[in-house]
Structure formats: structure tokens, C-alpha cells
Task: structure prediction
Amino acid sequence: MGSNMAENHPVGFRWPMKAKERGATIIHVDPRFSRTSAAANLYVPIRSGSDIAFLGGLINYVLSRELWFREYVLAYTNASSIISDDYVDAEDNGGVFSGYDPQSRSYDNASWAYAGPPQEAAEDASAHSGHGMEGTSPAKHEPARDETLQHPRCVYQILKRHYARYTPDMVAQVCGTPQELFLQVADVLVKNSGRERTSAICYAVGWTQQSYGAQIIRAAGILQLLLGNMGRPGGGIMALRGHASIQGSTDVPTLFDLLPGYLPHPAVFKGDDTLEKYTRESAVRGGYWSNLPKFIVSLLKAWYGDAATKDNEYGYQWVPKLTGDHSHVSTSAAMADGEVKGFIVFGQNPANGSPHAGLQRIALTKLDWLVAVDLYETETAAFWYGAPEGWKPADIKTEVFLLPTAGPAEKDGTFTNTQRLLQFHDKAIDPPGDARSDLWLVYQLGRRLKDLYRDSKRPQDQGLLPPLTQFVATLNLRF
Amino acid sequence: MAVEQSGGLGLGPVSRVGMAPQPMSRESIEKKPRTRDADKIVASVCPYCAVGCSQLVYVKDRKIIDIEGNPESPINEGTLCPKGASTYGYLVNPNRLTTVRYRAPHSDHWEDRPLEWALDRIAQRIKETRDATFIEHTPEGKVANQTTAIATLGGATMDIEENYLIKKLFSGGLGIVSIENQARI
Result:
């Protein structure tokens, strides 16, 4: 769904085709009939933006007809867990779930927690929700369960009530999909659910570039769990990433709200002013994330080396605290308002490729300085003379540096591909002329900044002094 | 393919494919793939989509002479799509930048500048902006230790190591919060 895999990931698409030769059924649900549709067993048209209704219809189909994989669901999902008394479904609350604040147009999800001591329930809900933690957020206390799934507030019953409205009729109306086609999809998925069978769902930017893309993926998560398709061979939900290491840059990450390894980024508004508060806020009992206090100290030691000691909270105060949404789109708006003075762009071209490219170009004119690092001159680097707006260079104050960089065969390094396989690429030749890898450039900037701050006694400058150089040296890369 | 002269039979060159000698033109015999003379063959990964096809980079005299799919990869088994097959043209291209280009404020042209000069100047600019905008506390007195006046944005064809170092230097070292990537976009 939401992908044209045959054309956009053609070499990857060989494998679904091989599976088809061996009897697998390929279903393509998409508003547009593409080459992927042509190669599929079943093309299912859908109205743009109606993915949740389609998936909701499938969820209702398996729930209402008792076609879900009972052993799997009882053993591996929270279907039997009982939710707090305070939770009210949208159906009984005028179309919104409990905890909605019309002013901020957002939810306080405290009432959605598992039933239990109220204080702890509230703490659960305020726990961090980074990319990786969202959805896992294990409870701090063992939730009450009803293995018979009869309790009216167990997850199973709530789901069943919530999804009851997604009838095949409703799906046909909302999605514009012929009902018999929808039922055919449901039938294929159900027939491939069980001990011996699985199905995978693949998606791409047709889902993620909708403003509620994460909710579509969650709906797919519910469906795949009900069918027993998660964590089993041939199952799962596959993001078909569009770039060589989108996955790697998400894991490491260069995203504002996360630290490496999906640790939530400390934030002023989450009350993370000390390491102790940060770990208390984020810690959970049981499961992988109960190790978060160790993870964060390991990261701080990796970053600050010997300068990270117990006495200085392992350097925690050198990690900046978020004061809001610092994502690319919000930052671009702040840049257009003149609040951002300096901007460094590595192999990226916001003046051409980001949402609202016109605003991006205006934002660049408000900068004091711009550093663009690329193999070629981009629209971003050339905005001061090449913008379609036709600005006069004399009116633009921005100081622009365009640094030539290396391509993948010109440096050692790793990519994480769409299936989370980490692959090394070797350096074949030196980059041309003054071109250098991004790693070399960042390392050299770091060295110079360390020199500039060497005599500083201010506490905020000390985080820079520990061994930045060590990191690159120990990798033993040719960059 | 074994090629030999046909001796006194007057058939010209022949090849020994199959049961009988096949006639073959001199041009065919002299033709050979340019990859055959490579000094070394280096394994790489396609820089385009995230399927992760493995590539073989053929190098001669410290220049890339060809890039092909790697038959040893279980992902692509030697194949590449048209985009991946164009990686050679992406790397070996007369339009690539080879010098630092600098545009002074209000200027109407690029100037070439030495790399060292540019790095010194950029480091200086980062320091000036950071020092002028760094906040230790919010107006409410909460610990912040950050600046929102500098931002970085990276593409997703950068290496994991590069992303790690960017986050480490700009976030952990300098207190910059808006560190973003194509992965968000």
C-alpha cells in the first residue's frame, strides 16, 4: 500500500515476484494503477487518504468474524490487558477520544493507560515518546488481564467496539473500493494467517507523507498483530525507504528529538534538567527499555570519554535540552522569521526538495551564513542568484560556502538499508580536487572549534573539549 | 572463450566454443570489456534507494573506469536498476565541484577559495553565532544549555559514521538542537 515498488525499488521487487512464482498472492492497494499494480495478482483501487478506513475495515472483518489468530494474540499482544476507567472512546465522546484539549488540538493520553494505581497511570502517560519508544511504552506496573477477553475494558473489547463501524459498506463508501474486491483482500489475508502462514505489508511515502502517516502504520500494526504476522518469518510491516541510509540516519540519528539508539532527547518541557530526572522519567519496568539508565550513561561516556564522570552526571548537562519542536519544517519557519542565523546543509537541497520550497528559499535569505556541502552545485547553494523569484544578489546578505564532497565510492563507511541490513562500502579512490568526505569536513570543523574554545572556562564550552578526535581515529576509516 | 589462428586453412581467426571452430572477426577478438584491465575491484553499495544493492567499482590508474552490480550480493545478485547503473555518471562527471566556492554577502559571483581558509572561516562563524545566542536557562529559569540559532540538515546518502559525528559535534559538543535529516522529510 502507498508504494510503487516495481518502479521505485525494482531490484527489491524481484523477490515479491519470485514469491509470486511460488504461489504467493501479491495485492497492490493504491489510488494509481502503476507497474506494481500490473505485476500484482490483485489491484485494489483506493481513494487517496482513505488508508485508515481500508485497514480499519480489515481489522473489523477479522474481529467481528472471529478470524484472528487466537493463540498468537493471547500470547504476544496486550489484547487481554485492562484499560483505565477514565478512557472514553471517540464513539461515546462526540468524535474525539478522552483527554482532548481543543485549545492545543492535542491529546493528553493519561486516561488511555492500563488500569492500575492512578498516580502510576499518569506517570506512564507522561513518559517519553521518541520514535522508538512510542508504541513500545511498557507499563510501569503489571496491567490487570482478562485472558477470557470478556472484560468490557480489555484492549480486545475496546478494539472490537471501536472498529465495529468499519463495515465493508463503509469501506466501499469511504475508499471507493468495490466491496467484492475489499472482501477478496480480507479473505486472502485471513487464509494466510495461522501457524503455517504469514503475510507482510509493505508501504512507502504514500503512507508516510500523509500528515497522520504514523496512525496509518499503527492501524497496520493492529491488523498484523491480530493475524499473527509480527515477529514471524515472512510477516511484518516493511517500510520501503527511499534513500541508501534513511534507516541509518534514523537509528544514529540526525533527528532533533532523539539521541543515538532511540533514546529520547532531553527536553526542558519534560522536566529533564538532571540526569536523574531524565532516567526516572524515561525508565520503565521490564523489557528492553528498562535498561535505559545504562544506555544513556554508555552514550555519554562514548561522547565525552574520561570527562564523563559520576560527579558531573557523565556530562549530561552538555547535552542541549529541547525547548520545542526543532524539526526541519518548524526550523525553516523560524529561519524565515530571522531567528536562525547559521545553517549547515550536507547533501541535501531544501530550496528544491523540502515542503514549501518557496518558504525555504525566503528562509535562506534571512541567514547570516549558509554552508552547503555537496557533489554538485544545488539550488540551495545557488539561491542567491538562481532562485525563480529573481532576487538581486546585492539585496541578499547571506554569506555562502559551498564545499565539494566525496561520493560513496570515495570513502569508507556504512549504510543501513531498508531491511535493516548494515553494509560497509569501501573507498575505491580519492575524491577529486579539494572534495572531502562529510566525515573529514565535520572532523576538521570539530578540531578547529576545539582550538577556538581551548581557553574557555565557561561550563557550556567544556563538552567540546573531550575526545572528538578519538571517535574518528578508533573507527580506522579511510575518509 | 579460447581463440586461436586457424593455421593453414585460410579461415582467419576462429573461436573454440562448442564442438567445432567458429569463424570470428579480428575486431571481435580484439574487443574486451574495459573492466578486464582494472587494477583493483572494490565493493561498494548503491547510493540511491534503500534496497542496498552491492556494487563493484573497477579502478584503473586511480580512476573509476566502471561500476557494475556485484554478483556475490544476495540482495541484487549482480543486477542494478537503471538508476543504480548510472552511479558511474554520478561520481565521474565533469560538473562535479572540485574547489570551495565562496559567495560574500551581497556579492553577485562565486569565488574559489582554499579549503583550509573556508574551514577556518566556517568554524569562526559557528563560534560567533553560538556565543551570541547560547542560552543556559529558559526565561523561566529551567536548564536549557542550547542554541536554536544554528541548524543542520543532512541527506540520507550519508554514512552512519558521518551522522554519528554530526550529532556528537553539533549536539553533544556545541548544544545545537535543530539537527535534522532527510529521514524526517
In short: Residues 438-452 of chain A form the longest helix (15 residues).
